[in-house]
Amino acid sequence: MAQLWGGRFTKETDKLVYQFNASIAFDQRFYKQDIEGSMAHVCMLAKQGILTKEEMQAIVKELTDISREVEEGTLEITEEYEDIHSFVEANLIKRLGDVGKKLHTGRSRNDQVALDMKLYTRLEVLYTDVLLKDLLKVLLRIMEENLDTIMPGFTHLQKAQPITLSHHMGAYFEMFKRDRLRLKDIYARMNYCPLGSGALAGTTYPLDREYTAEILGFYGPTLNSMDSVADRDYLIEFLSALATIMMHLSRFCEEIILWNSNEYQFVEMDDSYSTGSSIMPQKKNPDIAELVRGKTGRVYGALMSLLTTMKGIPLAYNKDMQEDKELAFDAMDTVKHCLALFTGMLDTMKFCKEEMRKSANNGFTNATDAADYLVNHGVPFRDAHGIVGQLVLQCIEQKIALDEMPLSQLQAVCPAFEEDVFEAISMETCVNKRLTVGAPGREAMEQVIALEKEYLSKEWQDEEAKKWK
Ligand code: ARG
Fold it and tell me: What is the number of the ligand 1 atom nearest to the C-alpha of 317?
């Protein structure tokens, strides 16, 4: 057992207590961030005259070596250390003796772990954003290619009005775009440095917190040392954003699973993204989409878990907060994997345009437009609604579509119908007459696509990076 304390104890820690308390099994994941934070800390200590320049240089050199050796696998992180902070410090002392013992001057593990977790999370926010952007690019391609691919739009999972595949994909584009905006907001709010807050009440050393914040790419230091060590809001916000991403992915997966079914046949998954059955030779299953939908639960779980952990914690640091890590890491990994797989699946998926078109033709998706036609010919909307309802009933009995009904039969129900009705209720007209902003009509969609392209050409990560001094 290697721990950083023990002076005031007369007995060894019970073995089970030690294991229960230790976090090395999971916090070793941020060894790089821990070392990066320590380097910034000692540079600042030297600048302030708290360490000599030589001491700082010696420590930075050894920390660099430790980081490299861990990365290369020549230095193993073992469970004999309580946590990653102990591991790094113990190894430094092993190599440098007394100079190594100066690393922790003016620092506590409380501000140290607050920093490490924030650095790690900040990077994850950026990675997740890049994956979302990749997904948006694929969506935009499908949107551009399918401005005229007519399909039914649904409400209550009943065919409602014709739309295009471009428009349908555009809905998801908006969702994932909002997800990116959420990440940008979170980044801007979280990017303040807790290092230098000490255990809870700052320190008596003349630390330069602005300096460490700057070295580590933060906008500045946090402004209350107790809040600094007790704050996990940024992580809760990130988990909430991740949960929302999963909710969006899951809805999309649900649609793809339906579309891929024998009943719909709107899409065909690429063989490389499908799986077979051990017993039924004909099967080609959408397991990836189902798994992404399924994994949504564990990401929601991570959010609920941390919200619950944090709700009863008095200021400032309490050990409960060690529980912020395992499920959060799992959620971060899960969302990254799901995004990457989903994007690949979507990119390789084949859209069966014929089937989509047939489906739109068969479901009376132009009934609203038939009613609108009558309104344009002087019939009040409520009456027009009733007339088209009657016609739909007749069509169902005759097993035909509205635009397959002869004009004489239409006129028998309402004399306002004329020859031009067929043009007015064709799928193309139904879609392309919908030209309000955000509607599926070709011109409206083209304008939206131009805006989305412009949006994708800008990079918020670059904008944020410019704010670093
Ligand atoms: N392993 C701890 C955590 O993850 C590090 C902070 C420990 N601080 C302390 N005072 N026990 O939160």
Answer: 10
